[in-house]
Write a structure and sequence with these properties.
One of its GO terms (molecular function) is ATP binding. Belongs to the MoxR family. This is MoxR-like ATPase. There is one protein chain. This protein is an alpha/beta fold and 335 residues long. 44% of the residues lie in helices and 15% in strands. The chain has 2 domains: 233 residues, 3-Layer(aba) Sandwich (Rossmann fold); 99 residues, Magnesium chelatase subunit I, C-Terminal domain (Helicase, Ruva Protein, domain 3). The protein is built from 14 helices and 11 strands. Strand 6 and strand 7 form a beta hairpin. Helix 2 packs across helix 11. The longest helix is centred in the N-terminal third of the chain and has 26 residues.
């Protein structure tokens, strides 16, 4: 039975009413971001889908493609408190999470006090995350999954909403470390940022090198964004879409026997990938003004959801087969 069939008429009417308002608010946020970020419409849409679905995003691309500018702009437009961490080889976990310091009071008594790190923000920009050591990268694991951190045995809750938008340089560049698989799995989407086309780059030249430059303005607030995220989870999903998600994710695992690259998969996505697709197709549908996701949403989001959750065998890499080739083959088999 589909999710839509389980909803009563009153609840569907409520969802429709909320969705009509939400579509306008999301469109206003997109337009505000587009006034600052040029030529990266697909990247902006996927970043918004990530946040609307309540997840974290990994933006991958060479330096100079406005990844950092996009995150800063989104923080302003969405009305979130934003902090930035520049990841470097000498960065320590305490530089992210915070640390305890021993303080002495006027009466001579001593006590530890926790000094919060920059992770205590609604939107954390982890800039060039793969330039820090794996030990430091893993400091984000608990925060990204459980929305709190544990320091000296004490739990410290993070603000709501809490999102990590990390930028990553291609692994081929010097001074980079691959992210651990467990951390990659925490990112809802991997968003590839490519070079802009000629017309977009021309606009960038004209718009950003003059006396005046466009600045981001707040459109949403944190509480409003959380209401949109709750609405996304209430969007009904048809049985056909659910089955397509299950078929796609399960076919991307070793020994699935599906597709012409089945024997080239070393390890594949777990159930978290299915959850990611379920949430992101809902968010994409809502962002485009639709009340239910379609198979096209699954096709559109398959690569950013799956590509960082898969690895190919050494033989496949030697043959020049890429993860996106495997995903494209599996997507082409979706009925």
């Amino acid at each position: 039975m589909s999710a839509a069939a389980t909803l009563g008429t009153a609840e569907m009417d409520a969802i429709v009413a909320e969705a009509e308002v939400a579509v306008g608010r999301i469109a206003a946020a997109r337009a505000a971001i587009a006034r600052v970020i040029f030529g990266q419409e697909s990247v902006v849409d996927r970043a918004l889908v990530t946040v609307l679905a309540g997840g974290h995003g990994l933006l991958v691309g060479v330096p100079g493609l406005a990844k950092t500018k996009l995150v800063e702009t989104m923080g302003t437009v969405l009305g979130l408190s934003e902090r930035r961490i520049q990841f470097t080889p000498d960065l320590m976990p305490s530089d992210i999470l915070g640390s305890e310091v021993l303080e002495q009071a006027a009466d001579g008594s001593r006590a530890f006090r926790f000094l919060r790190g920059p992770i205590f923000a609604q939107l954390l920009m982890a800039d060039e995350i793969n330039r820090a050591s794996p030990r430091t990268q893993s400091a984000l694991l608990q925060a990204m999954q459980e929305r709190h951190v544990t320091i000296a045995g004490q739990r410290h809750d993070l603000p709501e909403p809490f999102h990590v938008l990390a930028t990553q340089n291609p692994l081929e560049q010097e001074g980079t470390y691959p992210l651990p698989e467990a951390q990659l799995d925490r990112f809802l989407l991997q968003i590839d940022v490519d070079y802009p086309d000629r017309d977009s780059e021309r606009r960038i030249l004209l718009e950003t090198t003059g006396a005046a430059e466009a600045r981001a303005e707040a459109v949403l607030t944190g509480p409003e964004l959380m209401r949109l995220q709750q609405l996304v989870r209430r969007v009904p999903v048809g049985e056909k879409v659910v089955e397509a998600i299950l078929d796609l994710v399960r076919s991307a695992r070793p020994e699935s026997g599906v597709g012409r690259h089945a024997d080239r998969i070393a390890w594949g996505p777990g159930p978290r990938a299915s959850q990611a697709l379920m949430l992101t197709v809902r968010a994409r549908a809502l962002m485009q003004g639709r009340l239910a996701p379609s198979i096209d949403d699954v096709r559109a989001l398959a690569e950013p959801v799956l590509q960082h959750r898969m690895a190919l065998t050494f033989a496949a890499r030697a043959e020049g087969v890429r993860v996106r080739d495997v995903v494209a083959d599996l997507v082409g088999r979706i009925a």
